[in-house]
Amino acid sequence: MTRTEEFEDLRPLLFSIAYRILGSVTEAEDAVQETWLRWEASGTRPASSKAFLSAVVTRISIDVLRSARVRREEYVGPWFPEPLLSDPYQDPERSAELADSLSVAALVLLERLSPLERAVFVLREVFGFGFPEIASAVGRSEAACRQLAVRARRHMDEGRPRFEADRRERQELAGRFFDAFREGDVDALRELLAADVHLVGDSGGKAPLVGPHVFGPDKVARLLAAAAPQFTAVGVALHVQEINGQPGALLRDRDGRIAATWVLDILDGQIQAIRSVVNPDKLAHMGPVADAWELKREAGEFRKRPQ
After folding, report:
1. Four-CA torsion 68, 26, 108, 200, nearest 10 degrees
2. What pTM value is reported for the model?
3. What angle do CA 81, 105, 71 make, to 5 degrees?
4. How far apart are the first and last CA of the chain?
5. What is the rounded CA–CA span in Å between residue 175 and residue 157?
6. DSSP three-state, residue 215
7. How far apart are CA 146 and CA 131, in angstroms?
């Protein structure tokens, strides 16, 4: 196998590591590309290409994350990761860890960790790397990495989100939710929402939100039911789509451009949270992005018409 073939074979793993450390598709892709450039420039043939390349992409991702921390601290409103439609890396032996770590809630929780804690947690808990490999990747001793892993695991366990384990049940409930939304059925929506449900959006201050942060089944149901006819009037269609391994949807305008993503947190047969990303910068990697401000203007005109 050539060096190029080795790299391409490992590319899905490298992207998946970088994405979980960075929470950004575009930054993860850049990290993988930089890893390729360093691999191409390296004259040595490591004993394990997987260990070598994983270490390189981890170090690059840590550096990128450190530089991004200030930007994220200054971010306008809630910060969510860039939506990921499908994870290119699959490992049947670690499918549960991979799926759990991909959820929006888990990635938001990872933001609480330091860059080193986050990298160690991802390598150890998600991908099952040994501590000798992790130590090499992050430039710390094995003992230090074990301590980082313990701290990271404790922080994650304290706030770890729980989701409905049965995939079929989640999809069925999500289908009922999206049907109720399309119909603008307040009662049907309310029945599916948990008592402490919240709807929250990430716009980065660059797009309007359906609701910046709304709590409670009654308020969320009424807001969504009121938004449904406006979406229809301005040509926004909802396409059910798994996002970050969770039930969700893509919202597209009449020209097929992406206006937003929705992700549902589901537990105990109810929707616990609805998380929306409308920041155009976080949608661009999926294709052309709609003009959300123009859609809002059109929706405003629709509301003014006699009903």
Report:
1. 110
2. 0.94
3. 35
4. 67
5. 30
6. strand
7. 7
pLDDT tens across the length of the chain (307 residues): 888 999 999 999 999 999 999 999 999 999 999 999 999 998 778 889 999 999 999 999 999 999 988 788 889 999 999 999 999 999 999 998 999 999 999 999 999 999 999 999 999 999 999 999 999 999 999 999 999 999 999 999 887 766 666 888 999 999 999 999 999 999 999 999 999 999 999 999 999 987 678 999 999 999 999 999 999 999 999 999 999 999 999 999 999 999 999 999 998 899 999 999 999 999 999 999 999 999 999 988 877 776 5
Which tokens sit at 84?
Answer: 């990921």
**Separation between Cα atoms, residue 30 and residue 15, nearest integer Å:** 9
- Give the chain's domains with CATH numbers: 3-159 (1.20.140.160), 167-304 (3.10.450.50)
Q: What 3-state DSSP class applies to 24?
A: coil
Q: How many residues does the chain have?
A: 307
Paired strand residues for 271 = 193, 266
Query: Is-contact 52 35, C-beta < 8 A?
Result: no
Write the Ramachandran bin of 269: left for phi over 0, alpha for psi from -120 to 50, otherwise beta: left
Number of Cβ within 10 Å of residue 147's Cβ equals 14
Give every CB contact of residue 78 below 8 A, 6+ residues apart in sequence.
Answer: 200, 201, 202, 213
Contact between 79 and 112 under an 8 Å Cβ cutoff? The reply is no
Q: Which residue has the tokens 């709590």?
A: 215
Query: Residue holding tokens 């590309």?
Result: 33
Q: Please name the residue that has the structure tokens 């206006």.
A: 259
The C-alpha atoms of residue 210 and residue 262 are separated, in whole angstroms, by 11
